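INFO batch 0412 | record 1 of 1 | parsing
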Amino acid sequence: MTANVPSIYRAVFLYWDPPCALWGAYLSFFARDTTLNSFMPGSATNRDAAHDMLFYHQGGALLGAAVLNGYLLRRTGDLLVWKAAQAAILCIDVALLVGMAGHLSEQGRLSPAAWTGYDWMGILITGGVTVARTLFIAGVGLSRKGKAS
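INFO prediction complete | emitting tokens
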């Protein structure tokens, strides 16, 4: 079935999300200390091989998200494929948000007043695309004619 995807979803999935995912992958592969210190202040001095394994895993997941949105969706009009890609990436988003909540809780920084600029950036970007993906998968704004079952 051919997708008639509203412009707002196209903008988020095709143009906003891939560069954000690539930037996150870059940080995961090449700026691990900066990333660790940004989201968990004072932790970079304790980074070890276990942290690196998790960073590489996260970087790989983000590269996969960039490929799905930046390449695959530009080459298909199948709404089911679009929804499946967003569902897969939604799993990454939810895991990131749960992880952010966990580390903020452990540090006693659940109050937005205690968040750093990096916290705000991570939560707003990830939270925003999570909302967009959820609405898209639920069919909000999609015409009945092009709706996948």
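INFO post-check: The chain has one domain: 7-137.
INFO record closed
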